[in-house]
Write a structure and sequence with these properties.
This protein is α/β, with parallel strands linked by helices and 526 residues long. The chain has 26 helices and 13 strands. It is globular.
């Protein structure tokens, strides 16, 4: 970060002698809380190297910097011990303290006799170990703060940094994320791309909004056939690649039900596993039950020190082995954890997906981008009203999504009284699923290894409310299976999803950043 700022200033000074033009020539976007040190470092450069006065340096710093918040999780907002600064960056600490002194003076003038607000909003968290609140520093030191989906930006303003949003309401805005269609559709899914281009031309490649032209073709037999062929082609290619790369086999004629994302409790891969256990148990109890063959595909990585996330990965693999080893479920249900998740893997799996699971606890997923990639490739979404999935459903129509579960308001409102034991005691399928885990059904050779999963769901209060949403998840899953029996109706909804995905191009997102935050105009290309 320091080197980037030094190079930026060097290039500015090479062609400009007037510091007042700095914000007109330079736009620095703090991409989450990690680079917040840019605030005191730029101030240090302007004060100590350029010898500007405080007021001018602070004005230039704020006008040059903007901040994007990418998550509401407390650990990602970052609090750094003052002792670290004192030891390694004493000059930066001096600058931060002075920023805070002046800022709190402003807050006291704006909100007199409200010392509670002053303590909450301060850049310094007092306590046995004093800490610098890095997210607060990023907001105070910049002219714009944005979230990355409408619900995320709203929760940021009304809950996470409510006091700061009330202090600087004009700074807060939303920029819903997007993904590049050149990679995630044109390159990743050539068969579907050809079908789209043959139907509506190639203008969609640089103007994804043109996909709306597919909407009238949702009932077109010729395009529907081409769409289904493209889907089958992508599934076949993925199955071949998976066998070659990892030795795992999947049947491309089964439904590919996918969840690919970082392994975290709030993203609820464990909720997906509970759904699969319930389906597995239904088949064990009634082998004649009509159920379409399904392959559940997981991929993602866990942080090195996140032990429970690693245990969830192990559980998914044990669940896969148990289902494969049961003659009742073998060939009807299959679980695959695809190792070494990366962009190249995603480019193969996403076009092959029939179903996209976006099942985070409502209010915890800032936006998500895999949800957009799945959507523009024709997967149907089963998910909660969280992140950008809400906006995706608005674009394609909620009737073409399978939404379930508590809303963000309901999650927040039930915090004080939620008890997962109620679901265990009153929902037989939930109880059976948890009892199978605790009885070592999925770990006969490692008794007790999955006890932390049951503890997280029951003993420790199920913070991410898996059990609260499981029944609703299963009901939505039932509707999804019912639709799958009508291949024509399935294809129509999938086509309408592709047609509604135009908003979620990174072209739109970047254009909004450029015009609304950076004040940058397009450059003509000769």
């Amino acid at each position: 970060m320091a080197r980037a700022l030094a190079d930026l200033v060097r290039r500015f000074r090479r062609d400009n002698g007037d510091w007042t033009t700095f914000p007109e020539k330079v736009a620095i976007q703090l991409n989450d809380t990690h680079p917040t040190m840019a605030v005191p470092e730029l101030m240090r450069i302007l004060l100590d190297d350029a010898h500007l006065g405080w007021e001018e340096a602070w004005d230039l710093t704020q006008r040059a910097l903007a901040y994007t918040n990418h998550t509401l999780l407390p650990e990602a907002l970052e609090k750094w011990p003052v002792a670290w600064f004192d030891l390694m960056l004493p000059r930066h600490l001096e600058i931060i303290f002075e920023i805070n002194r002046r800022f709190l003076d402003h807050v006291r003038r704006r909100f007199p006799a409200d010392e509670g607000r002053v303590q909450r909003i301060s850049l310094v968290e007092e306590g046995p170990e004093r800490k610098i609140r890095m997210a607060n520093l990023a907001i105070v030191g910049s002219h714009s703060t944005n979230g990355v989906a409408a619900i995320h930006s709203g929760l940021l303003r009304t809950m996470t940094v409510k006091d700061l949003a009330e202090t600087f309401p004009e700074r807060f805005n939303n920029k819903t994320n997007g993904v590049t269609p050149r990679r995630w559709l044109l390159l990743a899914n050539p068969a579907l791309s050809r079908a789209i281009t043959e139907a509506i031309g190639n203008g969609w490649v640089t103007d994804l909004g043109q996909l709306r032209k597919l909407k009238p073709l949702a009932n077109d037999t010729v395009f529907g056939d081409a769409f289904r062929r493209a889907s089958r082609d992508a599934k076949s290619h993925f199955a071949d690649w998976l066998k070659t790369s990892s030795g795992q086999t999947v049947d491309p004629d089964t439904m590919f039900d996918c969840q690919i994302k970082r392994i975290h409790e709030y993203k609820r891969q464990l909720l997906n596993a509970l759904r699969i256990i319930v389906l597995y148990n239904r088949l064990r109890e009634n082998p004649g039950l009509e159920m379409p063959p399904r392959t559940f595909l997981f991929a993602g990585k866990a942080a090195p020190a996140y032990q429970l996330a690693k245990l969830i990965i192990k559980f998914l693999n044990n669940l896969a082995g148990t289902i494969d080893g049961d003659p009742v479920t073998r060939g009807r249900l299959k679980v695959v954890f695809v190792p070494e998740y990366c962009v190249s893997l995603a480019e193969r799996l996403i076009p092959a997906a029939d179903v996209s699971n976006q099942i985070s606890t409502a209010g915890y997923e800032a936006s998500g981008t895999s949800n957009m990639k799945f959507m523009m490739n024709g997967a149907l979404t089963i998910g909660t009203r969280d992140g950008a999935t809400i906006e995706m459903a608005e674009e394609a129509g909620e009737e073409n999504f399978f939404l379930f579960g508590l809303t963000a308001d309901q999650v927040a409102g039930s915090r004080g009284w939620y008890d997962p034991h109620w679901h265990y005691q009153n929902e037989p399928e939930t109880r059976t699923a948890l009892d199978l885990i605790s009885s070592d059904h999925f770990s006969p050779n490692e008794p007790g290894i999955f006890a932390p999963l049951r503890d997280a769901l029951l003993t420790h209060g199920d913070h991410y409310m898996h059990l609260a949403d499981l029944k609703s998840y299963l009901e939505a899953d039932g509707k999804l299976i019912e639709l799958h029996a009508d291949r024509g109706a399935w294809a129509r909804k999938a086509i309408l999803n592709v047609a509604g995905s135009g908003k979620f191009s990174s072209d739109r997102t970047i254009a909004q950043y450029a015009s609304e935050i950076w004040n940058v105009k397009p450059c003509p290309v000769s």
